[in-house]
């Protein structure tokens, strides 16, 4: 089932999310619905707060970045090609490594806003998969960036939080419009009341 995406201004997007256990109600169905929602909305990552759940769960499918940008030489030369498709539960980033680099990011919860955001090139992350097997892995390139973006969601942060105050002020009208439902997208959204 395709779930509505929470829009900028929804309180759940600013919550530090809680860990879950393997007996979280209907977890398998939630993950299935989140994958369906991710693909329907043409995203590359989706975090539980974006479907109005305050839990430490997010999905990443960075393979789509490479598949959808086959003509972009820069994208095709990132070290993490062909990308990953994974579920991350109760994730904790253990280490950020490498130089910071800029990339133009967007977010399904903040539609029609894209900004260059600096993030470290490599991360080490500990997480559980959907079967609650524990992993500690290192990711780099675009995959590390997508993971960091989704990880921020479960920490109550948004990519616009990295912008300089003046740039954020310049976007305030767009952000206010989004929170009031004055935005047109091809997917279902849930707006603050």
What would the average pLDDT be, to the nearest integer?
95
Fraction of helical residues: 25-40%
- What is the CATH top level name? Alpha Beta
Question: What structural class results from the helix and strand content?
Answer: alpha+beta
Q: How many β-strand runs?
A: 7
Taken together, the total number of domains comes to 1
Report on the biggest sheet: 5 strands, antiparallel
Tell me about this structure:
The strands form two sheets. The protein has a five-stranded antiparallel beta sheet, sandwiched between helices. It has a two-stranded parallel ribbon with strand order 1-7. The model has no long low-confidence stretch (mean pLDDT 95). The chain has helices at residues 27-40, 63-67, 73-76, 141-154, 165-179; strands spanning 5-6, 45-47, 57-61, 85-107, 110-128, 134-140, 189-190. A hairpin with a 5-residue loop joins strand 5 (110-128) and strand 6 (134-140). The chain has 193 residues and is α+β, with helices and mostly antiparallel strands. It contains five helices and seven strands. The active site is at 150.
Features:
193 residues, 32% strand, alpha+beta, two-stranded parallel sheet
Gist of the model:
With 193 residues, this protein is an alpha+beta fold. The protein has helices at 27-40, 63-67, 73-76, 141-154, 165-179; strands spanning 5-6, 45-47, 57-61, 85-107, 110-128, 134-140, 189-190.
Ordered list of secondary-structure elements with their pairings:
Elements (H helix, E strand, L loop, with lengths): L4 E2 L20 H14 L4 E3 L9 E5 L1 H5 L5 H4 L8 E23 L2 E19 L5 E7 H14 L10 H15 L9 E2 L3
Parallel strand pairs: 1-7
Antiparallel strand pairs: 2-3, 3-4, 4-5, 5-6
Protein name: Peptide deformylase
Function: Removes the formyl group from the N-terminal Met of newly synthesized proteins. Requires at least a dipeptide for an efficient rate of reaction. N-terminal L-methionine is a prerequisite for activity but the enzyme has broad specificity at other positions.
GO molecular function: metal ion binding; peptide deformylase activity
């Amino acid at each position: 089932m395709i779930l509505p995406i929470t829009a900028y201004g929804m309180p759940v997007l600013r919550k530090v999310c809680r860990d879950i256990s393997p007996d979280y109600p209907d977890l398998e169905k939630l993950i299935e619905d989140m994958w369906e929602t991710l693909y329907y909305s043409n995203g590359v990552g989706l975090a539980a707060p974006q479907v109005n759940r305050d839990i430490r769960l997010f999905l990443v499918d960075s393979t789509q970045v490479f598949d959808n940008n086959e003509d972009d030489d820069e994208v095709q030369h990132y070290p993490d090609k062909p990308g990953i498709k994974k579920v991350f539960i109760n994730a904790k980033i253990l280490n950020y490594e490498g130089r910071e680099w800029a990339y133009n990011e967007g977010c399904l919860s903040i539609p029609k806003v894209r900004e260059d955001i600096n993030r470290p090139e490599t991360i080490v992350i500990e997480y559980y998969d959907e079967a609650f097997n524990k992993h500690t892995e290192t990711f780099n390139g675009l995959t590390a960036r997508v993971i960091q973006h989704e990880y921020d969601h479960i920490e109550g942060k948004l990519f616009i939080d990295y912008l300089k105050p003046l740039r954020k002020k310049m976007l305030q009208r767009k952000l206010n419009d989004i929170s009031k439902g004055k935005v047109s997208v091809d997917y279902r959204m849930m707006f603050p009341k």
